[in-house]
Specification:
9 helices; Tetracycline Repressor, domain 2; mainly alpha; 211 residues; disordered C terminus; 4 strands; two-stranded antiparallel sheet; 71% helix
Length: 211
């Protein structure tokens, strides 16, 4: 059983994460200071340092938290007893909502990796979670391929393609600025493109599948 002290610690860390994410959604990692995060979380700077050793740790923990949350949602909303088509629709919605809310974190992650400012250990933990997300996504495609409702293709490549399709619709330009697209229309478009592109409907490469 988790102690009251541990629950309080986790609660305060989550407050810091939410405050940091709000700031990172409007400014780059480089532009946000520890003081900014402490102020937004309504903590003193000293209190914040009781939970995190640096701004990099706060950023890393924030990204780990939201990626873990996404993985948990995929496991819950895309169970093996759901049809592949229904699981795929849920998967698209989960990815879209995730990147709409947290996608701004990834350009900063890329810059930090390129300039070496993020500790390799912290980056490795994030990379492991990204791979887990991809694996869970691929499992949905694998079920559809096995049931012969999706095209026979590399499930991991399909998972990465879905990820890039969602990102490409939400963000544009070298700075990955979020677009002002209507969420419902965006989701409808993504599902239309994906379903018409990977769900078999009696034809393969322009020829009847039975020919």
């Amino acid at each position: 059983m988790i102690s009251r002290r541990e629950r309080e610690k986790d609660f305060k860390k989550q407050l810091i994460v939410e405050a940091a994410n709000r700031l990172f959604s409007n400014s780059s990692f480089e532009a946000v200071t520890v003081e900014d995060i402490a102020r937004a979380a309504e903590f003193g700077k000293g209190t914040l340092y009781q939970y995190f050793g640096s701004k990099e740790e706060i950023f890393s923990y924030t990204l780990e938290t939201v990626l873990n949350r996404l993985c948990a949602y995929i496991e819950k909303e895309c169970p093996s007893d759901l049809t592949p088509q229904a699981a795929l629709n849920n998967l698209i919605t989960l990815h879209y909502r995730f990147y709409k809310k947290y996608g701004h974190l990834f350009p900063s992650l890329l810059r930090m990796k390129l300039d070496g400012s993020l500790n390799i250990g912290l980056y490795t933990e994030i990379e492991t979670l990204i791979k887990r997300r991809t694996s869970l996504t691929a499992q949905v495609f694998e079920r559809g391929i096995r049931d012969k409702v999706f095209i026979a293709a590399d499930s991991y490549k399909l998972a990465r393609l879905l990820n890039k399709l969602v990102i490409g619709l939400i963000f544009e330009g070298p700075e990955m600025k979020a677009t002002d697209g209507d969420a419902e229309k965006d989701l409808e478009l993504i599902k239309l493109i994906v379903s018409n592109g990977i769900i078999l409907r009696g034809e393969t490469n322009g020829r009847n599948a039975n020919s």
